[in-house]
Amino acid sequence: MALVEQRAVTLLLKSVPEAFRQDLISNRILSCAGIIYRVHQKWQPSGALEKAQLLQYLVQPPASSSPSACLENLRMWQRMLRRGGELGTVPPDPSLLLQGLDTLSKAVLAPHPGVVFRVSSHRNDSGVDYSPTAENVRQLSDFILAELETLTLTEDPSTRGAPPKRPKVAK
Known about the structure:
about 170 residues, mainly alpha
């Protein structure tokens, strides 16, 4: 049993940041239960800081420059929205969620008129712009996610992150 405990402690120590590992070792916290307790004490899952960061990300997500980066950020945005429900936080107003979703995707979608048209049609059909609800915003995020997945599949790997080139027209 001691060998299993020793192996588990080794794995736990490898999984934490270096500074935190040095703190654990210097304080002689070298049991599985002690390490897990300190990790929970330091990062406090479901704590006030996590809730604040979560709500901040939903309202002000980072803008992206490429479809693949936007896809990652949108997936993170959706995870944060689900995590907020798990934590029992009061979600931001749907209009603020919609504003965050626009911030996240507008710059990436703008060079693609077909995608912009489909997203605008979906927005118009769902009425999310003039009467946003949490469900409408979630559906819009799913729709934009699908469009971004299509964009990343059609994106040329050699120009990944670069704006799309327009075809030359013969004069």
